[in-house]
Amino acid sequence: MVTAAAAATRAAAPSAPAAAQAPATPNKKSKSATAYGTNCAYTIVVNELDSSQCPAMTQPVQSDRIPDDDEYQKKLTSNEVHGLTSKIHNVETTLLGEIVKNRELNTTLAEHAVMLRKAEDLFNMYQNNFTSLFRTIMFIEQKIRKQKEISRNLDNKLSNIMLDVVEVNNVLFRKTTGPGTSLKQKHIKVESASHARQCGITKDTPIFKDCADVSNQGHKDSSVYYVKPTYSSCPIPVWCDMDTPPKGWLMIQRRIDGKLPFNQDWMNYKNGFGDVIREFWLGNDNIFLLTNQDRYELRVDLWDFEGNRVYAIYQNFKIEGERDNYKLHIGDYKGSAKDSFGKHNGLMFSTPDKDNDKWSQYHCAKEWEAGWWFTNCWFTILNGPYYNKSNVSYRGISWNEWKHEQLRRTEMKIRPIAK
């Protein structure tokens, strides 16, 4: 902005104008000039622009006018045109390649989608087939289990019938001159092979290794025979069961009517007690000597008061010696009585006067008045008190997996395992 101040002064004389005194110098920088008129003289003062109050300009001011096309074209050189054309061509080529790749990718994805649908359909078909097959297998397994159960029941019934027939035949057709007739009128006490000081038999008495040996030598009658275990000094009388298939069973225990008490001490169970023709325990020493001379199996026959009969057979039956408290060893089970004795495997023998059971705070043998392989206390007990009635639970002779009630009769017998 430009400002002007003028001061006019009339001259007194017509001669050359006198110099006018300039006004005081302003704060801002300024320039002044004097002009003379006819009657007056004028002084003009112009202040200079203070640039410190103006904003700094970072770029030169450009014209807002758009250049003409002709003028713009004149500015493009031939090299620039060629470069732009080349770039456009490269972009078009790249774009075309991407389009081709995109089409190939879409084609591949479509093929994969078709394959995936086929795989899903195939999987669903297999899944349906497997479900149907699994249901069929389950149905067949249920049928097989039912058939097995029916077969087991028939086998048990057939076995019981066969055993009953054998017993009836023995009663009806046994020869009156056979050894069984005269023996029933006798009492043959159980003897211990380990404590016999003098063998009480004649030289003509036949001696066998066990009852299987008796059967193999042609003897067919169930009776008392003398057997001599391998490591004993004298033979002992035993009852050989020739009626129960496959014959040749050596009896180690029998309960019939309860006339013989089985509440015996350690020494009696060690040596044996009773009558081998009636009720008896063969003796732990005898059982030890017999079962350690060969591989034996154990058969247990059980009767209830209703006349039902079942059995259990255990492979590899033996007991250890007195030093190991006649520890029990039995193997695999088969039969119709269900497995109760197998749970006693590995247990030591206890009597009312010697506690070797698994219950440290309880004396099972004393409570149940019997010698047996007690755990805490038992799953089966065949040497317990005899009650002449069935409605006695968990107290007398019992085989829990078959019945918890008192049993009427029991037999334990051994035979060498067939080789």
TrEMBL record:
Keywords of the record: Disulfide bond, Glycoprotein, Secreted
Subcellular location: Secreted
Region of interest (Disordered), residue spans: 1-33
A GO molecular-function annotation: extracellular matrix structural constituent
SUPFAM superfamilies reported for this sequence: Fibrinogen C-terminal domain-like (SSF56496)
PANTHER family assigned to the protein according to its UniProt record, in alphabetical order: FIBRINOGEN ALPHA CHAIN (PTHR47221), FIBRINOGEN C-TERMINAL DOMAIN-CONTAINING PROTEIN (PTHR47221:SF5)
Protein name (Swiss-Prot/TrEMBL): Fibrinogen C-terminal domain-containing protein
